[in-house]
């Protein structure tokens, strides 16, 4: 995971990493303690790891942050601070930005590859041509230019984009909060699903994810491989389309 730091530095993002196995996890304040108190033991460790990762990401861009309460499932940061948190397989990761609090911010870590059969829960028919023609593990490293995408990569790109669009003025009020990890495939989202977004590749490891109902609302996402999993993160907004333009 630490190999991601140069990529995120180049994008103006700070990276924070934490694990559920770190000794002595404690809430950073009463709001975090109250939120964690009602959680099952495993979820509590994930929650606290995510908060540690967010504080580390903010410190990486020169910002301090105390406790991070939540509203629903969304973290609530103090003014001038923002981060996106993701969990997978006992690891929490977060990205933060030093400036431009209104810029879209989102990330998603998937360390357990999704099966090809999950495509129907992530994609619509007009996106299925993006998939690779095989269902097998892949190795860490940059994506081959021109290669197809795995279901895991497309899921991660959409999940990161969903968080970014839901967290800024880029998304309409009907866009609900993102789920956390592959379990979001099985949990009904309150106001939509990843299939309400459309993804299209632009270059190696980079894609644009647009809201189907309003294609001008879009973000650029980079997806990189981490072991047999992937990490997707939002680079920033994508130029909007004209009313007569086709989706990519």
Automatic annotation (TrEMBL):
Pfam families: 4PPT_N. Residues 32-96 form the 4'-phosphopantetheinyl transferase N-terminal domain. This is Enterobactin synthetase. It comes from Streptomyces vinaceusdrappus. The lineage of its organism: Bacteria, Bacillati, Actinomycetota, Actinomycetes, Kitasatosporales.
